[in-house]
Amino acid sequence: MPNRLKAPTIITTHMNADFDALAAMIAASRLYPDATLVFPGSQEKNLRNFYIQSAMYMFNFRGVKEIDLSSVSRLVVVDTRQKSRVNHVAQVFENPNLVIDAYDHHPNSEDDVVHRDGIVVNWGSTATILCHELMKRGVTLDRDEANIIGLGIYEDTGSFTFNSTTPQDFAAASWLLSQGMDVTFIADLITRDLSSDQIALLNTMLESAKTHEIKGVSVVITEVSTEEYVNDFALLAHKMLDMEHIHVLFALARMNDRIQMVARSRIPDVDVGLICASFGGGGHAAAASASIKDRTPSQVKDELFALLYSHINPQQVVRQLMSHPPILIESDHTTAQASETMTRFGLKAAPVVDPKTGECKGILEHQIADKAVSHGLGSAPATDYLMRSNASVPPDSDLYNVMEIILGQGQRLVPVVEDGHVIGVLTRTDLINILIEEPARIPESLLPERMRERNVRIMLRDRLPRELFNILLRAGELARDVGMEAYAVGGFIRDILLNTPNSDLDLVVEGDGIAFARTLAQSMGGRVRAHHKFRTAVVILENGQRIDVATARLEYYEYPAALPTVELSSIKMDLYRRDFTINALAVQLNPANFGKLVDFFGAQRDIKNRVVRVLHSLSFVEDPTRILRAIRFAKRYNFRIGGQTDRLIRNAMQLDMIPKLSGSRIFHELNLIFEEEHAVDCLRQMRDYRLLEAIHPLLTLTPAQENLLEEIEKVRDWYRLLYLDEKPRNWMIYLLAVFNGMPEEDILSVCTRLNLTKRQSSDILTLRTQTNETVYRFKMWRHRGGPVSELFFMLEMLPLEGLLFFMSRYNQEEVRKSLSMYLTQLKGMELDVSGRDLKGMGLEPGPLYGEILRKLRAAMLDGQATCRDDQLALARRLAKDQRYIGLDAAPR
């Protein structure tokens, strides 16, 4: 990344930074004088303006896009240690030998990074911690530094009124005064008069506030909603706390597309930092906040109640509720033996453990084991088809952790582990029986077998072209009129949530999909192409928009790698047949529920965590092309392949599933990969899984091929930015690179495996020959210093794919300049003379026309006939000089 700044040491903080975070960064810069400050941004407008107008210039902050993150060897994080809160520098954590220093005043969490140096103490602010370190080292601050650092301390201690304030905070402020801190400056920013909008919102907060008695503790919850972001919502919550003498407050505000949660606690019974951390936020026991994007206010409130009931004086622990002793399956048992054991004891799932160590390897579901046996895989080890990660709890854990795993993550049972051994289990049935008598409300977002209550209508309206949004509205109205339920599904919904353009519209109806497609086409003036075997249809509108319509169905596979057999089913079963959770989303279109998001399998969570996760453990056995799709999606969205999904891919590779696929299906997936922006990364991942050699033993990815493919990617991206009409066949360019240096008979062998047509195979070989010949002629032309026209006629004979491959293969400046000039200038130059002009001179139509026009083009390109008059004059001379042309012709 030549245009990005090399930064061996960077200092950064959490997203949505507050004054304490900004202050801590500036203080840390005095401890690390050579560090680069990377500010992640803030939602508080006053802080953003302050930062832009002052701090950016004074302290030389950088945006993360300006930094070459691969160059970072030391990461200094302040005011947080949670990895999930510094996603803007997530790439840095992959750097080898990375050293992390942390300065933080928040309590420990499971998501904390492992740091080598730094200071973590429970003081009122992180700025205080750094002040004491600066004092120790005898550092002198200037007035601007003292003011900004002081601002952080005043804000996070509530001007020394929060019960989290410590003597060290006062000592730090005293030192800052000696360094020139201006308390008037601090007061102007901390103590501000409320605007009329803020006063109105505060009134609404007071009116909507409700007090709930939760296990003897009074908790006030207030909810407001506003279309626009309101500055200093935390300030309003703090004022409400003071005005009403509240001990525990949770203020929830829906602003734009997210919910802001601000929490304050004046009693030790409620740790608001711990509760906000469960929503992806942070803070400490007395003051915390969270910004929640993927849930409705109702879902947030329900989950908040469950957390409060769990964390306030929890009365029951897992040890009192678990079933014991558990029925276990030993990891050296076969899948058939495991299925028999679960049948005997009537189990829907069971833990699989190491017979020697007792370590839990995972959970095996009875349904999956039975299905594997039906596929003839009963002799495979029981560990091959464990689904999901092995989430377990200790016996002293509280109930909410179990709810999170069973209801939130969909794990059928939770092993209870003590000293490395499974001593009991809590099943879904156990949990339901407990919750019948449990007064705590179950979070709606964790309820099993239900659609999530999130509505994305506004997101659809804002992120889709108007024409596409209207199609969805019309489809929903038609479905209502004919008594069906219609849904937009799959990757179309995934990309809306990711805010990625995608006009490939897929609809599913609970009813006759083909009949619905015909109704839709008639309504919108389109035509229908039906596929009765799969009960699907394509509606093609006059503007070229395609709408795929399917009947809600469940697919099952008669044998591994087979094409699917289709049965009618519901939308849930239709989504379950899909490949990955992120593609198993739907949005209801019928007017009564338009925009309601359907997420049975945790796709929103996986999108948030940036992970590709397969829906069931036999997915790659039933359709091995999903392995290539997993790689393609992971690289397209910069996601990772989940741990269990990775293991299942490797298992499918060991079972030698790829050779069972037809060449056409493999080539189809490869063709899609070659269209991706990060195709080379996909090929690297395929090599790591040994997919290339599984497709054909002659397919490799050597360092030389990698370098060539990387150049192809650069050239392809450069060509795309030219916005020319002609589009290259990317698969051909990439295969030329993969085939580079390979004998012709080996190329034909690979082409045969991929089931390429004779025409496609011939095109590849011809293009390779043409490119090599052009390379030779180009070198001779450059050596002679030949005219521009010769370059034009030389390259004119080479297809676009060959030109781009040529440019990639010979990464020399002169070559790039010449080919660039041809593509961007020469190729588009038109003569001012045509055959009509030659006919007007009295020449008979025939081969002479082509020869004269070629001579004219050469003269134009070489600067000898640049205007119409010069070209006409030259054409007349050529028509009279038969020896020059080399053809016998005469005017009439």
From TrEMBL:
Its cofactor is Mg(2+). It comes from the Bacteria. Belongs to the tRNA nucleotidyltransferase/poly(A) polymerase family. One of its GO terms (biological process) is tRNA processing. InterPro entries: CBS_dom (IPR000644), CBS_dom_sf (IPR046342), DHH_sf (IPR038763), NT_sf (IPR043519), PolA_pol_head_dom (IPR002646), PolyA_RNA-bd (IPR032828), tRNA_nt/polyA_polymerase (IPR052390). Residues 322-379, 386-444 form the CBS domain. Its EC number is 2.7.7.72, 3.1.3.-, 3.1.4.-. One of its GO terms (molecular function) is CCA tRNA nucleotidyltransferase activity. SUPFAM superfamilies: CBS-domain pair (SSF54631), DHH phosphoesterases (SSF64182), Nucleotidyltransferase (SSF81301), Poly A polymerase C-terminal region-like (SSF81891). This is tRNA nucleotidyltransferase (CCA-adding enzyme). The keyword Nucleotide-binding applies. Keywords: CBS domain, Hydrolase, Magnesium, Metal-binding, Nucleotide-binding, Nucleotidyltransferase, RNA-binding, Transferase, tRNA processing, tRNA-binding. It comes from Desulfobaculum xiamenense. Gene3D superfamilies: 3.10.310.30, Beta Polymerase, domain 2, CBS-domain, cca-adding enzyme, domain 2, inorganic pyrophosphatase (n-terminal core).
